[in-house]
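Lab notebook, bench 4. Continuing the backlog of folding jobs that were queued last week. Each job is logged with the same field layout so the records can be merged later without manual cleanup. Today's entry covers Cupin type-2 domain-containing protein, a 299-residue chain. Filled in by technician R.K.

JOB TYPE: sequence-to-structure
TARGET: Cupin type-2 domain-containing protein
LENGTH: 299
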Amino acid sequence: MVRSLTGDLLPCFLKIAVTEEGFCSAPSIIDSNSNGNPLYSKVINPTLSPSHLQDLPGFTRSVYRNDHALITPESHVFSPLPDWRNTLGAYLVSPAMGAHFVMYIAKMQESSKSGLPPMDVERFVFVLQGSVTLHNVSGIGQTLMVDSYAYFPPNSEHLFESYESATLVVFERRYAYLENHITEHVVGSTHQQPLLDTPGEASVFQLRKLLPTSLAYDFNIHIMDFQPGEFLNVKEVHYNQHGLLLLEGQGIYRLGDSWYPVEAGDAIWMAPFVPQWYAALGKIPTRYLLYKDVNRNPL
Ligand code: UGY
Ligand code: MN
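JOB STATUS: finished
OUTPUT FIELD FOLLOWS
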């Protein structure tokens, strides 16, 4: 302890000026931290970007709430996908959260093969990295590259093979049958899909839909593109569920009362009626892929 100029007893480290004049003989813990920065300098120069905290062991931006979840890449946990060969999977959305669908990343390694979904479950697959060969029932192979996708109606035979490696994002859902309507097998590529109108959004973002919009389909997959600085006009609250994968760019996602910095690689689950809003920030455009259930009476 030292006595301050006003006569109070103070611990050494609070009176830098006094210690510099030699009153405090304790070893100096006051000048700098181990990085050579002034002690406590972070308090007055706070880290504004949470990504700097990524060096902190245990830090994650992932969040799990009852009406939304943000699952960031450092939280992905992969394990062998049952029924697939040489493939690791990380489920990012599942019914355990309250969702009626699953969304998972499948990492196909050398000489890998897909398995089939359970009975009455439809499947949508989008290639994120590498390429896969899709064999149809007659055994004919078709190569799907990055940005290509395929949809399989419930109970339809199909097989993916990867000879080197490939990463896929997969959506599956128990099909909601509708009398006199059936879905068909679809194969396509994002860039082949036309740009669509975005009512209520005054052309703020670009929208493509990867599946037909006809009644037979009980969900669609949207590809949404935003230039930096663009944001959703509508502060959406709706009955539909979403599973989202940010493919490129960064920005702020509002989910309920929380505002999250997000970037490419992040996955989001949105329960029905969760308030949702996005603004694209940074220097490059944002692209995200979005599952949305459609065409069915919510009753
Ligand atoms: O179509 C949608 O519901 C979409 N605009 N939602 C979203 O981007 N969160
Ligand atoms: Mn929405």
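OBSERVATION: Helices lie at 16-20, 41-44.
SIGNED: R.K.
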